[in-house]
Amino acid sequence: MPEEGRCAPCDCVGRAAQFNGPLPSADTVAEEPDPRIANMDEQIALPRRNGELVFEAPWEARAFGIAVVLNEAGVYPWRDFSQGLAAATAAADQHGVPTRYYERWLATLAKLAIARGLVTPEELEARTAEYAAGVHDEHDNHHGPHDTPGV
Length: 151
Prior knowledge:
Blueprint: H1 35-38, E1 48-49, E2 52-53, H2 58-72, H3 78-94, H4 101-115, H5 121-132
Antiparallel strand pairs: 1-2
Helix pairs in contact: 2-4, 3-4
């Protein structure tokens, strides 16, 4: 039996479950969006189209969800995430480095995950290499109740 808050097939939540108990489930995640997240400063505002969040690829939605859930689980205050995202955006702008919004989001999430001890830099590098090699492609879109195939 996997630890509470972990995915049995791939242990993809990693050590996040040790922080303040189990990660929130769909039943415990806030119904209303946190205004600090929904209404971030213009410089780092979430991409929207007709008022709806826009994700160009599945990994962007996953990165968004992971950042929000870790905040709701008490792993870090949202202020830490938004300040990191603002710093990443400012640095990219200052150096003229064209990056997509969710690339900066993911970099911010990675820095916080390392800083909070959720993952080591080596573990993150290894997991990144696994995904780049397609190791997790079969499992990629099957998150949800693990007793329901394809969910």
